Here is the input.
Amino acid sequence: MASYKSYRQIKASRIPDNSITSVKLAAGVGPTMCVKYFYGHPCYCTPGCCCNWQVPSGVEKLSIEAWGAGGNGNGACSCNRCQHYRGASGGAYNMKTIQTTGGCSYTVCAGGVYRCCSRECNGCNGCSSYVNGHNLSGFCAHGGARGCANGDWSVMCTSTWWCCASPGTWGGDFAMAPHQSGWSGHWNCHCTGAIQHTCSSGAPFIGVGNETMMDQCWMRCGCWTSPYTAGGQSAMTSYCGRCCGQGGQGGSGIVRITYV
Here is the structure.
């Protein structure tokens, strides 16, 4: 049998849409949206940031966004020949909205980078960022693609979308991967006399990439650090016979949790 207390409850069906606006509510009434960031330090050899996060009391919903760490740039690896380049890419993006309860715990990891500058023709991919816990599994954002170089006179390095991401990819609601740019020389003669250019990309919706341009230079090593989630710079040369340059490292991954 219904009680007096049950009659006092307000049902959503009895409230017209848009009839209760923020100006009709007293201060402190209604849900409060908060944001928490997780990321590694912006310096050389960033390990990222992994920890356990507990949902504050009263929270019912999480919107989780993750960006993978950027890939490392390639080294200048070919002696007695100039090279074609493909820049490293920034980390992928993924997001997921879930229901939760105060007190639930989540393992949160913003990806780091391979902790060594590359002297080889291929750099190293960035590490993935991920979150696991109550009502959430298999959610991650892949790290960025590595930079690469070759000394072939005819095999070009073309730009590419290094990864296709459809809805539901990597356990999320919406995912996106950035563009990986390429540089293929000047009429197949890619030494002095033509400006050489390569770019590493940033991650979707956040950050920027790195750009390198030069005309004549014995060796241009990549910067040791990169913006958050961005791909590292490649080592470049415009002369034959130099092969000691090292590529730079990508930027740390990021995880952002919006809770209400």
In short: The two ends are 35 Å apart (CA to CA). Residues 4-7 form the longest helix (4 residues). DSSP finds one helix and 16 strands in the chain.
